[in-house]
Structures are given as structure tokens and as C-alpha cells.
Amino acid sequence: MKKVEVGDIVDGWVTGARRVPSPNCDARPAGGAIDLVVIHAISLPPDEFGGSAVEELFTNSLDCTVHPYYERLRDLRVSAHFFIRRDGELLQFVPVHARAWHAGASCWQGRERCNDFSLGIELEGCDSRPFEDCQYDRLAGLLALLRKACGVAAMAGHADIAPGRKTDPGPHFDWERLQAALAARTVCLTKAI
């Protein structure tokens, strides 16, 4: 895949990202700042990569008859701001100023409803396999842009804000590696739990 760098945010959309608008979003509460990035992992079907199922899930077009697992997703209405595929491709579903429906029941530093004040980044992955080098590179570049453009200062895993309910980004996600990649870009984001 041709590497496309992210460079700026225009009208809430990151340049260099493939835009796939999701209907699963709404307005953030008035006066709230974006304080947090939540890192997730997703694969559909579970533990399988590639294909269009994640895009279809986030755009309410998933054919639930294609795989037995999909039946449990039939009425689910979810999205994330971003999705980073195994090959490093970056997709954006929701503009950064809007509220994506990614965190569900969640709490961070005593604040409930993390969707209200966070950005959601999904990595194509699962709990049983490591992530790809290009995913860390793409994620670090995206986080650097979000730090600069949106003022985000903290990041957490989905499991950190929904303990007992979620496990992602999972045991193979290397937080130290991500911090090193951010430091190489002279970007500081706190790993918050």
C-alpha cells in the first residue's frame, strides 16, 4: 500500500485518511473539550483481518447473514473516529468535532460517558496477535496530529475505561513502543487509566 501521511485537519476530517462517513455519531455536549484518545482493537469476524466488515459495521450496512458471529451485531449502532488497518491504511468515519459512539458505558478519572470528551481510534487487531509495525507508525503520527490540532493530552485503552467489560486493545498492544514513537516525534501524551 502506498504510504499517505496525515497532515492536517480540515472541517474535522484528517487529510490523508480515507473518508467513510458513519451515521453513528452526534453532537458533543456544548462547551466540552476533547481530553482523551481511546485506543481500541477490532476484527470481524473475530481474529480475522481484511475485508470490509468493520467499515460495514460502522456504516450500518453489515450483512449479518454472512457469518454466524455477525448475528449478535444485528442492531448494534457503533462507530469510531478512526480505523487503522493491518497495512497502515487510515480510515475516518466521524469528524473530530462530533461524538462517535465507540466507548459505550465508560468512566475516566471519575468522568462517565467518555464518548462526550474523547476520540476513538480502532486498530485492526485482536487479543491473540501482535499489531503491525506500520500500525504503530500510523497511530503515532495520528496522535501527534490530534495532540497539536485538538489539544488531546491523554490516551487510554478501551479496557482502561470499561474494565471488566472490554479487553482491547489487548495484551499484545505495546504501550511502551507507542510512547517511544511519540517521543521520537517530540509528542507527549500521558497513558491514563
From TrEMBL:
InterPro entries: Amidase/PGRP_sf, Amidase_domain, NAMLAA_amidase_2
Protein name: 1,6-anhydro-N-acetylmuramyl-L-alanine amidase AmpD
Family stated for the protein in its record: Belongs to the N-acetylmuramoyl-L-alanine amidase 2 family.
GO molecular function, one term: N-acetylmuramoyl-L-alanine amidase activity
Subcellular compartments: Cytoplasm
N-acetylmuramoyl-L-alanine amidase domain residues: 22-170
Record flagged with keyword Cell wall biogenesis/degradation: yes
Protein keywords: Cell wall biogenesis/degradation, Cytoplasm, Hydrolase, Metal-binding, Zinc
CDD domains assigned to the protein according to its UniProt record, in alphabetical order: PGRP (cd06583)
SUPFAM superfamilies in alphabetical order: N-acetylmuramoyl-L-alanine amidase-like
Organism expressing this protein natively: Pseudothauera lacus
Catalysed reaction, written as an equation: Hydrolyzes the link between N-acetylmuramoyl residues and L-amino acid residues in certain cell-wall glycopeptides
GO CC list: cytoplasm
Domain of life (superkingdom): Bacteria
Source lineage: Bacteria, Pseudomonadati, Pseudomonadota, Betaproteobacteria, Rhodocyclales
UniProt enzyme class: hydrolase
Swiss-Prot/TrEMBL cofactor(s): Zn(2+)
EC number: 3.5.1.28
GO biological process: cell wall organization; peptidoglycan catabolic process; peptidoglycan turnover
Pfam families from the UniProt entry: Amidase_2
